[in-house]
Amino acid sequence: MRLDPTSIWYSRSRRHPLTRLLLPLSWLYGAIVRVRRRAYQKGWLASERLPVPVVLVGNLTVGGTGKTPLVLRLVELLRAQGWTPAIITRGYGGRAEHWPQRVTPESDPDRVGDEPVLLARRSGCVVVAGPDRVAAGRLAIALSGCGILISDDGLQHYRLARDLEIVLIDGTRGFGNGHCLPAGPLREPPARLNNVDLVLHKGGAGPGHRMQLHPGELVNLRDPTQRRPLSDLSGQRVRAVAGIGHPEPFFRQLEAAGLVVERWPYPDHHRYRPEDGDRWRGLPVVMTEKDAVKCATFAASDHWMLPVTAILDPDFASHLLRKTDQLRANR
């Protein structure tokens, strides 16, 4: 039986019996994180600065917070401001033997990862994946001649010097029990927010800048030219497939649109196979865009994906563009 750590990290009581057992490891992890960051700040470990500005989009917690839609929206905003952006990303789950790799809309997600392929399809940018963000950035600059780099994740990859840090927080779940790994979901202590440039909350309510994910039209996996409003499936039973870090908002979004949802959650970055598609037969299937990247080759005619677009509050967009204007002036 596989234990889902989120049941510990986001327990409502925050007193899960395993939490106390794991706390000493969390304290050790947090101490190592602080020492490592201090080493980069003092120059004991070297960061490398690339010849173009780097805008980094990251989070403090493990799991999905909506960074990919945010990166896509940043590409649009920066283009409108006159920048030529490129994107670098880790390529999590990719099995390529050599990194970094240029990612195209036709790339195999099994080799380079699902999120990089999605970014390449949606952004129209040069996208480069690789665990070494510095090497990925150099290749992206060489391939694109870009004027600015957007790093999808990598907040803790301090070897890559960055000019602007944006941290995205799940506005509903927050930081869970507030502990670092493994007792909690935090990659770094919350105090790290004191040193970032911009903080954005996905959903939820309260003070601070907000981002909402707005659903678009359903797109057919077998024939992407076929599109239909999500409301077409209102009142119908569907199989909702989601192999993402936090699938609950996706399921709730479908239910809010009136669909009768049969939930099929999978682990984040799940490697789908045709046998999975066989299990979904009998009902229309609606999945996230990230999942669709890996399912198109065996999709049936009633398999649909739901793209989402990041909607940013105007104040956040204004703050961002002022800061990128400063980056241009300082170069």
Describe the structure in your own words:
This protein is an alpha/beta fold and 331 residues long. It folds into two domains: 48-212 and 311-330, Rossmann fold, CATH 3.40.50.300; 217-306, Rossmann fold. It has ten helices and 15 strands. It has helices at 6-9, 17-42, 67-80, 109-112, 114-123, 133-144, 248-256, 274-279, 289-295, 314-330; strands at residues 54-58, 85-89, 101-103, 127-129, 148-152, 164-170, 198-202, 209-215, 218-220, 227-228, 237-242, 260-265, 285-288, 303-306, 308-312. Helix 3 (67-80) runs parallel beside helix 5 and helix 5 crosses helix 9. The protein starts with 5 loop residues before the first helix and ends with a helix. GO terms for molecular function: ATP binding; lipid-A 4'-kinase activity.
